[in-house]
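__Protein archive entry__

___
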Amino acid sequence: MSLESWRERPRQTLDDPAAMRAFAHPVRLALHELLMRSGAMTAADAAREVGISQALASYHLRQLARYDLVEQAEARDDRERPWRVTSLTQNWSDVDTSPEKSAARGLLEQVMAERALARLAEWQERRGEEPEEWRQAGGIGTSYLYVTPEELAELDTEIGRLLEPLMARIADVSERPEGARPVQLTTLLVPLPETGSGD
């Protein structure tokens, strides 16, 4: 997929509860992330990277393809069948507030948050071995804001705009400057309950 094609499909919205539940599987998330980081890859190569059997990797890749999260990539020869992701980012709509959709969205967000926390714990364990510039750059921060729902949606959109040129580097290796490495950025927009104090 060309860089132009990536920019035409920068964000994929999951509206189907079945797709959300399918994506929430830890092995599928691991395979999807691997394809995001590495580009097109065969099931055999992906299986080795993730530490599962080729048959299991093939099964989970087919499940991801069923919901248009991955697709077959152009093969270099007739012997291989590489896979690639279909979009740089995913989000999930909660316009339909049915119990099934809310439960599926909750499951997906919970699994993704757990993966992000696991990555943070891994980073904390190896932070001391990292170069100083990376030790300073990595970590966690938090902010409290008073915003309207519209302002929060706009903030999310603006963050996406800022990330777009950096995410283009996923599709085009030549865009990556020397010293660049993959970084996981997890955005949690959590509306808090009202305190009743008016502050």
User: Anything to note?
Assistant: The longest strand covers residues 11-14. Strands lie at 11-14, 70-72, 83-85, 89-92.
